Amino acid sequence: MREYVVKGNKKMRQGVTTGACATGAAKAAASMLLTHTKVEAVDFEARNGKVIRLEIDECEVTDNWVSCSVIKDAGDDPDVTHGLRIRAKVWKIPHGVEIDGGTGVGRVTQKGLKLPVGAAAINEVPLMMIREALLEVGTSNHYQGGFAVEISVPEGERVAKETMNSRLGIIGGISILGTTGIVEPMSERAIIDTIKKEMDIVMAQGVDQLLFSPGNYGEDFAANQLNMKTDHLIKCSNYIGEMLDYARYLKVPKLILVGHLGKLVKLAAGIMNTYSKVADGRMEILAVHAALSGVRKEQLQKIMECITVDAALDILKEEGVLDEVMVRISERIAFYLKTRTRD
To answer: What's the rounded Cα separation, in Å, for the pair 110 and 201?
Structure first.
């Protein structure tokens, strides 16, 4: 891939998904199986209409099957799957296209994902892309039969330890993913999709509430200070709004959100993406509520000059209004959370 996008004033190269790599490898293997001609590269259309061209890395040919591989190129995205060899082994069957996972492709072990328990972790769009590519190869070569495909990733089980697959109940390897076939650098969508999958899995277990935290601090506080079970805690990162929207879609009966005030205070102004590059406003929020609690102008200015929320809280404590301000802010947070979920 040599397509680029501009993010944060930087020109960044796009990559390809594991699903696109599996599609390219399968298409090359099917073509070689039917034509007995070596394939150096393949072209196919991504789900967004762009044409993806992938070079074939390795091939193995026997009388009964052909195996080809593609090296995963994540572009400028910090993806742990970058550089992995995605392999497809293809052989003939009487009709249809059957796709399964081999070594290094995870298996689904819990309900809640769109794939059934026991299935290979190859998502819906990659499955569709592989089927379409192989049917195209069959048609162009006047082949009336079908194909069986096994997707494998030699280093997949090792790399899976660096992903969230185990939390999603996917064991034994990575997932073959992608919604378009193209990876946008530093994509937030992949993180949000993972959070949603975790929510699906936990809700599929019949729980009556979901526990969320932006990060490790909230998880530790819930476990050590609140004595809460955190086995099914979901880390929602900065994406509070996305989490609330999906919780409403799932009709979650009860939500518990635990985190450091440094992030959660932003919710008191309706800021639902707490990433500092998106919005800050922490000191402004604290200063406003401090002013409503009678704090003097000089102290308000000190709050505005604070770098951390903890430093601002020290000032509120000195002024004797810490509890009052926290109640005010908690009420505003609750207001905006309920507004977002239309509760």
So the answer is: 7
The alpha helices in the chain, defined as continuous H runs, are: 18-35, 124-140, 156-160, 188-204, 216-224, 240-250, 261-264, 282-292, 297-304, 309-319, 322-341
What residue has token string 């059934």?
116
Q: From 128, 150, 183, give the residue that closes a domain.
A: 183
- Model confidence pLDDT, tens digit, residues 36-54: 999 999 998 887 788 889 9
How many domains in the chain?
2
| Average pLDDT of every residue of the chain | 91
CA 296 – CA 245 distance, rounded (Å): 39
Query: Are residues 294 and 314 located together in one domain of the fold?
Result: yes
Question: Domain boundary residue among 183, 199, 214?
Answer: 183
Q: Which residue has the tokens 């079970």?
A: 229
213 and 153 in a common domain: no
Strand, coil or helix: 188:
helix
User: Residue 7 above 60 pLDDT?
Assistant: no
- Taking alpha carbons only, the member of 214, 205, 184 closest to residue 74 is 184
The residue range of the domain holding 268 is 188-341
Q: For residue 271, give the nearest of 251, 244, 250 by alpha carbon.
A: 244
The Cα-based distances of 65 to 37, 97, 133, 148 in angstroms read 13, 15, 17, 10
The pLDDT of residue 25 = 98
Residue 79 — very low, low, confident or very high, per pLDDT cuts 50/70/90?
confident
